[in-house]
Amino acid sequence: MSRYGMLEVLATGPMTTVQDLGRPGRGDLGVGRSGAADRGALRLANRLVGNPEGAAALEITLGGLCVRARGDVVIALAGAACPATVTGPVGIRRQIGHHSVEHLPCGATLRLGTPARGLRTYLAARGGVDVTPVLGSRSTDILARLGPDLPVPGTLLPIGPPPAAFPAVDLAPVPETAGGELVLEILPGPRDDWFTPEALRVLRTEPYEVTADSNRVGIRLRGPVLERARDGELPSEGMVPGALQVPPSGQPTLFLADHPLTGGYPVIAVVRTRDVDRAAQARPGQCVRFRTA
Amino acid sequence: MHVRHCGGSALLAELDGLDEVVALYDALAEHPPAGVTDIVPAARTLLVRFEPPATPQSVEAAVRAVRPAPGGRTGACEVRIPVVYDGADLADVAALTGLPARDVVAAHTGTLWTVAFCGFAPGFGYLTGGDARLAVPRRAESRVRVPAGSVALAAGFSAVYPRESPGGWQLIGRTDAVVWDLAADPPALLRPGTRVRFTEVT
């Protein structure tokens, strides 16, 4: 038992992982950065509870998480807003807010419903989720199979020592995750010359649908085919989050946090860094449009 | 060198070949420009990722200003990897190369290899500089499980599988050498620039 309390996992929903801001600096060893898919939301959840921005928290995909506090725990939720219910140790229930600082008394359970919009919710606990770091990070990279094991019912997540800083606000008035059509800004290249001029026009004007074949590695998109101007293979080259890689099918994949470090299909354009967080909140069935600055 | 933008936080330097990639990687890894977070070498390119306050312009200028040292980094380490050459694909490699299996082993142990870049999996180094006769294609069908320590060939490269994983390379042997160790810093034995000598054990 951690002296600072623990979160006992009772249910995880479709997928819950521990994430911080990842492990940069080891790309040359074949180790990707990984980390929270929506980095801005992780940072916000941490700031709310007075943690350093890069403390480890839970990344919950499409809600469904249920945890019980062992010891008193101060928490905040950010990212996709879920209905969140706290059941106290004597059975009194209350709804808690999003983007707000909340107290989970020892024995209380927190249950997240399904978000109405957005995909990934971040649960930060004051002191951070203190699982053992792997290569300097507590992030689970699902592609490289690095980092802590995925929480399952019964997992006890220790909370770390509280930081010196206290929460500065009770509530952060930030806009909620967008539903409906998502518009993302792209920068053409690095391999736009592998495609017809028409392909770039199509990418800039036509909607693409987020398919269910999407995860932390990337989002498979469905829409008009992006036609190549040349055949042949590209020697594998480094990839980045936000890259729109186009396999021979002509249907692009938008890479997220756990993307492969290198890839052999040409990248027609890259989503701007600040828009990658919003892309990570896109749900299957949602439409995405790309525009250039 | 041709420099392409890869979004707003990375540049892709295109080079003439692997030697130029390795030379530029060595120089940049030794003195990373301010703001650079990751340098990812590949067969023909070097990806340079950066964070503010670095800008594409400042990083491109820094990359272009690098003068790789002739002959590569001084003090590149050399490791010996003892191999039992009993791989499941040794006979296929012999057939593909037209060499008797003994000569495949002699060719594999006969030259000094160099790690050009990592990819595919953490710590999976692509080794170059081998005997040109060992250039064999990947297997027609990938294996679901290749054991850690498998020594393999494909597309002119050699590699040691750092962990058990799926894989399509031709397996010629196995080693007890630990090439991936999370408790070690750095965790990868085969890092870009490392020289590798395979030796036969029976």
TrEMBL record, chain A:
SUPFAM superfamilies: Cyclophilin-like
Keyword field: ATP-binding, Hydrolase, Nucleotide-binding
Domain of life according to the entry: Bacteria
Keyword Ribosomal protein: no
Keyword Manganese: no
Occurrences of domain Carboxyltransferase (ranges): 28-292
InterPro entries, per database record: CT_A_B, Cyclophilin-like_dom_sf, PxpC
Protein name: Biotin-dependent carboxyltransferase family protein
Species assigned in the record: Microtetraspora glauca
UniProt lineage: Bacteria, Bacillati, Actinomycetota, Actinomycetes, Streptosporangiales
UniProtKB/TrEMBL annotation, chain B:
GO molecular function: hydrolase activity
Coiled-coil boundaries: none
Alphabetic keyword roster: ATP-binding, Hydrolase, Nucleotide-binding
Keyword DNA damage part of the UniProt annotation: no
ATP-binding as UniProt keyword: yes
Occurrences of domain Carboxyltransferase (ranges): 1-190
Domain of life: Bacteria
Gene3D superfamilies tied to this protein: 3.30.1360.40, Cyclophilin-like
InterPro entries recorded: CT_C_D (IPR003833), Cyclophilin-like_dom_sf (IPR029000), PxpB (IPR010016)
Pfam families given in the database record: CT_C_D (PF02682)
Protein name: Allophanate hydrolase subunit 1
Organism of this sequence: Microtetraspora glauca
